[in-house]
């Protein structure tokens, strides 16, 4: 290649590099919000709609008034991925599932953390429950629940990034052998997976299978006998309890309101989040006109 050609190529490369400098895309609040919500049956959606007053009574029933413009996802992982890839998106997930790919907003002046959830400063929180039919205290189900509520079990809860409860006494291996099937909420699944791993280390003869679905399935499959233990990321409804289920709180979880990391905002009020999910504000500019 001749010297003149080499100089020309170098010059073109330099022009291309310089033309890219200082021209990064700027986040524009005039753009439409991509509203991301969970599917019907999700305990996270149920808790979110209740906490942000998105329900409206009609004909004696509470109806979820989440805007039909919302993009529906069927798991925590899909919600995180959707928001991470769309700079104008907003969504909600379990605090214990929060990672560095998205940004959690402060709500009503409080940032989400284990400390603010425990203190009540961050009020967007709900219990993680497991549900069971009546069981014998000598059964495999009872033994697993004893482990979850013990010092060892609640240490697992805390180390998994969730808010632990006041623990019962230390757990001692039962020496039981058998199999349990646990299933339900995908929000509870990450902490349950850790609890199962620790329990099986203490009880090598026990097999615990986990199926990640949703809270509604956690209830119905437990009632029908498909699950020994159901996972729900909300309170047990009175209508569900009347059918023979009992709930046990295993942890407390905050609901993180997440946006893309390029979003200029760091905080919203509860009223502003409600405004978005009711479809009353369709751009970020409309939300932030305070």
From TrEMBL:
PBP domain ranges (all copies): 27-150, 174-286
Keywords from the named record: Lipoprotein, Palmitate, Phosphate transport, Signal, Transport
Cellular compartments annotated: Cell membrane
Membrane topology: Lipid-anchor
PROSITE patterns per UniProt: PROKAR_LIPOPROTEIN (PS51257)
Keyword Cytoplasm tagged: no
Function: Part of the ABC transporter complex PstSACB involved in phosphate import.
Oligomer status and interactors: The complex is composed of two ATP-binding proteins (PstB), two transmembrane proteins (PstC and PstA) and a solute-binding protein (PstS).
Name of the protein this chain belongs to: Substrate-binding domain-containing protein
